[in-house]
Amino acid sequence: MSTDAVGTQETPLYPPTGEPIGEIARRTKVGLWTLIVMSVSGTLALVVSYSYLWALNVNGGWAPPGASLTSSQTNSTLPSKSDATFAPEWPFWAIFGLTVLATIAMWFGYKQLVKGHRDGMLLGGGVSLIITVAALVAQWIQITTFPFGASNGAYASAVLLLCAENIFNLLILVFLHIGLLNRTRKGLISPLVYYQTKLVSYWMVWICVSVLLGALLTTFLLDSPNTEPSIFGTFKLPS
Amino acid sequence: MSATATAFGAQVPQPVQHGKPGGIMRRLNFGTGLIGGLGLAAIAAVVTNAFIPSGAASSVNYAPIAPQLVYLAALLGWVIGFMAGMGAFIGPIRWLMGRDLTHADAEYMAGKDLGKARYWKFTTDHKVVGIQYLIMVMIILGFGGLLAMLIRTELGVTWAEVFTPSFYNSIIGTHGIAMIIGMIIVVMGPIANFIMPIMIGARDMAFPRLNALSLWLLAAAVPCLISSLFLGGIQDGWSVYQPLASQGPPGMLGYQMTIIVFAISTGVASVNVMTTILTMRAKGMTWSRTPILVFGVFAAALMGLYAFPFYQYSQILALSDRIFSTSFFKPLEGGSVWLYENLFWLLGHPEVYVILIPSTALMLELLPVFYRKPLFSFNFAVAGIVGVVALSGLVWAHHMYMTGWAPAVNYPFMLSTEMISIPVGFLVLVVLGTMWRGVVWTRLPIMAVYAVIFNKMIGGVTGIYLSDVPADQYFHGSMFVVAHFHFMLMGVGLFGAMGGIAFYFPKMTGRMLNERSGSIGLWTAFVGFQITFMSMFVAGLQGQPRRVLQFDDLFNISNWISTIGAYIIGVGMLIFLGAIISSWKYGDIAPSNPWGSKSLEWQTPTPVPLDNFAVLPVVTERPYNYGVPDPYEKEMREHDGDLMTKVGAK
Questions:
Q1: Cross-chain residue pair A45–B275, CB shorter than 8 Å
Q2: Which residue of B has its CA nearest to A235?
């Protein structure tokens, strides 16, 4: 059994049940891994959706109308609602970069805590919180300034949902950060009892991977490879 | 840390106790949940109605968007308000504020000294959650069963139209999803929660608050489903295929919200179950000494963990198409209905095994007890479960043979589907091997096992036809399919669960289930089941399509017989339910181990104490060593003989 409680001869006990904190830490770690499996599955559903629609280009409706396409990819049946184009790629990477920086700051805080420096944790956690909020704000700005609307084709839909997932994940991270900082300030997270910090750090690594997947998709899967998509008859939207 | 408390003999430093143990949770219960849910739903609906222009239309079905948004806001308000009123958010808020639970808080939360009130609260004790799940399951299955009676009434009264086609469609869809939810939790809820922790020698689940959360999320989801009936219902079956679902009435939002919330409930339950099994087994309980039911429950949790998010996201995307005008499933704008089908069936088929595997494992758990023999080839049983889990994620597209999606992969999927009969065959062989030359102690639980064996045989064999691409071209979309999956889900899942409830009833309630009325109920339901679905096979072979209200006279006789059978099932189920209710109140007081079982859950007193075990047990042998000589017996005899010799010599 690994224990996350070090630096003392006496093993701290978990107040509600009297079990050693190391045991609770081990249990929570396993719980976190299973939670990550569940989250991976959800993210995969979005990745599959994006790449599936990209590959099919049903009715030539993958790209937003107005995106720079070859003539064979232009959807003649889809009415052009706007001059929408693909989203710029750099904001996806900027948000990914911010998430990575926040994760590094949290890991710094965690390592400092293990070494016995509670102030280091407050510093690392605080910086991580600020960067996470910055990522959240950036994500919000991006989602509200896309050059397309929700109804501008399959690409727009898939990108919007990927970004919505990022917002959800970042909001949870903000909650976890505030909790960790407050608990560290109160002494509930300490060099003796630090497993929650460690687990949040693990979770942040997964969130980085999740954001990275989104950035990769939106950078490398733009023009659909299916240049002769199925056209299911002719459609007209009601005026 | 201001004081200490004694927890299992240890002096444990405690955080500051704010007020009485439990804090604000003392004031919260089901009543406040209802008030919170209904109140917030009403507020959300009124506010949304005030801010949404009434003329706005959805781009999917061109229906007015305002009523849909109001309904969605009300559903969200209901779920959030209900959970807040129950106290589900108190834990995270306390964590955020740094107000950790004390031992006294934890005991209050577990329902200590709360009497029957603990069943109406956000109680964390796994035994209370197990009983709450049992009640919930009976309500859901009762509701779904009632709808089944309505369906059969419509199909049986062939000379008249009892319901409008629209209402008929909506009861079909609601029946389907209610039964699927009920069957998923029928073993994983009551038995996995109440029995499994004791079975592995633990004091509770790994995350007690998550346990209560999963239960009350389910309670929040069910009214969403029922509400859909009043807003046009679920018109296109439980699978709610696109684009029909997008074009459906606002009731579809009730379905989507139900699934989104239910998937969270199942997800947190899976996390909890898996962590409990992985980290809290008693000392000495190696994997080879772990009861087979625990493997079954673990497998179901694992499949739920990876598969449910796909289902959840399929509904999130569908909801997004309807409300936010995205284009995931709209071919006109680059979407694909096949995407929906793939996401849906990525859960849809593992979900079948989420239902079947715990019931099958339950059957394997019962056999050694009533045959007084070790489980035949425990390792094969484990291999069978592992094999089913491994293949469960590779068979989903057999539901899509006839949709036109990727015909080239039909045959690989046919192969993977038929391969799954190999691990299932392992499980059947283990059943037969355990029964072989055994002397059975015929009691109600083992009768349910016989029913399951028969039903599984029929369901399994007919499943092979459906997995076969050429045969499926004929059977697809017919009543044959309906009969097949009822044999698997109800015939195996529900009858297995009835056996499990009969078996564990004494431990869960402290009273013996009335064997006579329970058996009459079981066998009546079994006979009715055969009449209903055997006749449905005939209708399917004759070519009757499913989900169709009016059909040719050719199918009249089969449908009359099916309807009579369905009423017989209803009578049988009512008798069984009556046996449960009357035995719970007036049944004989149960001894702690009425079946003479060797597994841990029967070694605790009945009623089970709050902490399950005064001292955590140490496991020294396999759980099914019935009739196996004790390896230490000879040594002990020799030792005693030596002692006697020595005493004699003196």
A1: no
A2: B332
